[in-house]
Amino acid sequence: MALHVPKVQNYASMLKEGTKHFEGLEEAVYRNIEACVAIAKTTRSTYGPSGQNKIVINHIGKQFVTNDAATILRELEVQHPAAKMLILATQQQEQEAGDGTNLVFQLAGAFLDNARDLLKMGLSVSQIVEGYEMAGKEALKFLDGIVVKELTDLKESKQVAPVIKSSLMSKQLDISEFLSQLIANACISIMPDDGNFNVDNVRVLKVLGSGVTSSTMVNGMVFRRDVEGDVQEVSQSKIAIYSCPLESLQTETKGTVLLHTAEELKEFSKGEESQMEKIINDIADMGVKVIVAGGKVHELALHYANKRGVLLVRLHSKFDIRRLCQATGATVLPSLSIPTAEELGYIERVRIDEIADTNVVIFEQGSSKRPMVTLVIRGSTENIMDDIERAIDDGVNTYKALTRCKKVVAGAGACEIELARRLLSYADTIPGLEQYAVREYAHAFEVVIKALSENAGEKATEIIAQLLATHTA
C-alpha cells in the first residue's frame, strides 16, 4: 500500500506556526534594503564635526549622550536580520580599526539605496554584485594615488598629533587640540622600538570634578583605591599578585572543634596566627615588598605585612589584576601559597597619591620593557567623561592604525569625491551592464559630503558640484 503524501499548499505550511516567508524582489529584497537604509539614516546626523549628539536609553535604563555611532548601534538592540548584518559590519570595523564605524554604516546604506535603483532598472542581483566588486577593487588601487603625505617618525608629536586630531574632531571639536596632544604624548611614551603597539597599554581612569582640560597623563597604572596597611610607598621591589582573598586557608569541609580549657583556645588561635605569619614571612623573604590581593585582607595578614614593611593593595577587578600581571611580568596565583621566583613580577615604584578628593594607588614602571600609561580624565558629569573616554579610544586606535600604514589621505570628503570622480571615468571603459553598478558605486561616496554639509547647515548639491569642478580642474 502506497503512503499517502498530502499536497503542500505553500512553503510556510511546512514550517512551525507563526513563521513568515518572503521571497522575490518586492517582498524580500526591497524590504531588506528599506530597513537598512532607514537604520543608516539614524546615525547620519551624528557624522562629522558638526554632528549632533543622540540620547539613547538602553533596556536597563542607562542613559547615553553621544555621537559615537558604535555606541548608539550597540545600545539600540536592532532585531531586523538585514539591518543586524549591517551593524555586524560596523562592529567588525570597530574591532579591526577602532574607528570609522559611522563611515562604514553610511557607505553601506548608500550602496544598498543605489542598488535598489539598479534593480528597478532591470539589472540582476549578480550583475550589481559583480559591478560593485569591480569598483571596490579599483577604488583600493586609486587610494595609493591620492595619498597627500606619509609620516616618517611615529615618535614625533608634531607629525602624529594632527592625524589623531582629525579623528577626534568628529567627537570633541572644542577640545580636540588638547586631547590630540595628550593622546599623542601617551602613545609615543609607550611605543616600543619594534613597532608592535598595544592599545591596551593606554588605560583611562575617570575622576569626577574640574574640567576636561585638567586631564593629565601618568606613567604607569593608576587605580582608584587606597592601600590596606601602613606602608604607603615602595621602590624597586618584587611583586606577588593573588586573585584570592589574603586570609587563612579554609578547610573544604565544615568541622567542629571541642575546646575544654582557656589554654586550648589560646593554642588554637596561635596555630592560625603562626600559619599566617609563616606565609607572610616566606613571601617577604623572597624580596617581595608589594602584595596585590583579589579579595579582602585579613587582620592577621595586615598586621604581619605592616611588621615586615610590605605594601598591600586590594583590587576587585579581575581585568585590572590581569593587566597588572602583564605590566609587571607576574603570574596571578589562585590561592594563598608561597610563589616561586618565576611567578613574581617586578615594579619600579608603588605610591599613593590624591587626585581632587580621590585616593589613588600608582604603579610606576620607569624604563621597563612593559611600559604602560594611564590618562586621568576629569569632567563635570559622568556622561561627559564617558564620551571623552570613547574619543580617547578612537584616538589611540588611530595611532595603532598609523603603525600599520603611515600614509594619510585628505579629509572633509576630498578623498571620497576624488574616488567617485575616478570611478566614474573607469565606468566609461566597461562595456557590459556592470558599468551602471560601478557608476552607482561611485555616486554612493557622495553620501559622506552630503552628511557633512547637511549637518553643518550647508547646501549639499552645491558643495558636491564645487568639489567635482575643483577636482576635475
Mean pLDDT: 81
| Number of helical regions | 15
Profile the largest sheet: 6 strands, mixed
Distance between the termini: 83 Å
Q: Estimate percent helicity.
A: 40-55%
How would you spell out the order of helices and strands?
A: HEEHHHHEHHEEEEHEHEHEEEHEHHHH
Low-confidence stretches: none
What global shape is seen? Answer: elongated
User: How many β-strand stretches?
Assistant: 13
Which strand order does the major sheet show? 6-11-10-7-8-9
Beta-strand percent range? 15-25%
* Rg calculated over all Cα atoms: 30 Å
Structural class: alpha/beta
Report on this model:
The protein is an alpha/beta fold and 473 residues long. The protein contains 15 helices and 13 strands. The protein has a 6-stranded mixed β-sheet. Strands 4-12-5 form a 3-stranded mixed β-sheet, covered by helices on one side. A two-stranded antiparallel ribbon has the order 1-2. A hairpin with a 2-residue loop joins strand 10 and strand 11.
Keywords, separated by commas or semicolons:
3-stranded mixed sheet; 48% helix; alpha/beta; 473 residues; 6-stranded mixed sheet
Q: What is the element layout, followed by pairings?
A:
Blueprint: H1 24-42, E1 54-57, E2 63-66, H2 69-76, H3 81-96, H4 101-121, H5 125-145, E3 147-150, H6 157-168, H7 176-189, E4 202-208, E5 216-219, E6 221-223, E7 233-241, H8 262-285, E8 288-293, H9 299-308, E9 311-314, H10 318-328, E10 345-355, E11 358-364, E12 373-379, H11 382-404, E13 407-409, H12 414-427, H13 434-444, H14 446-455, H15 460-472
Parallel strand pairs: 4-12, 7-8, 8-9
Antiparallel strand pairs: 1-2, 3-13, 5-12, 6-11, 7-10, 10-11
